[in-house]
Design a protein that fits this description.
- It is built from eight helices and 18 strands.
- The chain is an alpha+beta fold.
- The C terminus is likely disordered.
- GO terms for molecular function: 4-amino-4-deoxychorismate synthase activity.
- It comes from Aquifex aeolicus.
Length: 345
């Protein structure tokens, strides 16, 4: 087993290797140990928490890694070569699904759906080197690589799902993607998309927070990364709830489902041919005192042997343009594979 994480998890830079003492597959949030470790939550847990049947992966719904010391990663990246093998929703298929989402919006079923596709790759080399190339193209605060033995998981996420410090609970939902901050800020579509998800996160935190403590601390902040820019907002509240209680009332993350959440999950299940598995779940560090930091598992790949699937998605609203959404989808793949995919892929 091996766990490599961005130094920003610990307030630093670069990449760190975390000692893994044990790995526990779990089935319920209540099974999470009250000790120091790294937690991975699969989107599969959605079925239990929302009562909506979904396509499930072959992996445990929850993984808890008991962790020890942390040291700088001492490794010179070797060659790792990716070969595209297709997608679960190719260009025209993805655009057709966008049309169906807009039909649901027109009927009043939902306001927004996060529609995703999986990009299939074979590769040569060590999967850790695939992650190192990924991170070098786009360093992000919540990146990590986990080799669990029979499978591996890597994420290049910049999205904070939930962070608890004492009684303070914070979320930073992301919606709004582009190459230019001004273009994002001036787009009514991007702002509306972000506002809807921020309001959902405010409601989710409100389910576990002290009455009157929930507030939106910041709205429409744009952060620049190496290959793209993202818009986020900051929601916070005060809570005495523990991690299992909070997960049960806030998972899955609003930004990777849609509004309203339950109906969005039902439509996602209809339109997406793939199980999401760990993609669109959450992962991060848990402390002995009950504090934790969990990212949203966006820009995430997992697999085994010499095969992996990298996932990306887009928030679809009424005025979404199918071609532009496809271009946004491929922009999110750019950090993983470079500029070699096109809207028809």
């Amino acid at each position: 087993m091996r766990l490599v994480v961005s130094g920003e998890w610990f307030g630093g830079k670069g990449l760190l290797e975390v000692e893994v003492r044990d790995l526990l597959p779990l089935s319920r949030p209540e099974d999470i140990p009250l000790q120091r470790g790294f937690l991975v939550v699969s989107y599969d847990l959605t079925e239990e928490l929302l009562g909506v049947p979904i396509k499930r992966s072959a992996y445990p719904s929850l993984l808890f890694l008991r962790t020890g010391g942390v040291r700088e990663l001492s490794r010179t990246p070797a060659g790792a070569f990716l070969k595209p093998e297709g997608a679960t929703l190719r260009g025209e298929e993805f655009r057709e699904r966008i049309g169906r989402v807009k039909d649901y919006i027109e009927r009043g079923d939902v306001y927004q759906i996060n529609l995703t596709s999986g990009f299939l790759f074979s590769f040569r080399g060590d999967p850790l080197d695939v992650f190192l190339r990924f991170f070098s193209r786009q360093p992000v605060p919540f990146a990590f690589f986990l080799d669990a033995g029979d499978f591996f998981l890597m994420s290049g996420s910049m999205e904070l799902f939930l962070k608890k410090e004492g009684s303070r609970l914070e979320s930073r939902p992301i919606k709004g993607t582009g190459r230019d901050p001004e273009a994002i800020l001036s787009s009514e579509k991007e702002r509306a998309e972000n506002l809807m998800i921020t309001d959902m996160m405010r409601n989710d935190i409100g389910r576990v927070a002290r009455a009157g403590s929930v507030r939106v601390r910041e709205l429409f902040r744009v952060e620049r990364y190496r290959t793209l820019c993202q818009m986020l907002s900051i929601v916070e509240g005060e809570t005495e709830g523990n991690l299992p209680h909070i997960l049960r009332h806030t998972f899955p993350p609003a930004s990777v489902t849609g509004a309203p959440k339950r109906r969005a999950v039902e439509i996602i299940e209809e339109l997406e041919p793939h199980p999401r598995g760990y993609y669109c779940g959450a992962a991060g560090f848990v402390k002995e005192n009950g504090d934790f930091t969990l990212s949203v598992l966006i820009r995430t790949a997992y697999g085994g042997g010499k095969q992996l699937t990298y996932f990306a998605g887009c928030g679809i609203v009424w005025d979404s343009d199918p071609l532009r959404e496809t271009e946004e989808l491929l922009l999110k793949v750019r950090a993983f594979y470079g500029d070699r995919l096109h809207p028809s892929d």
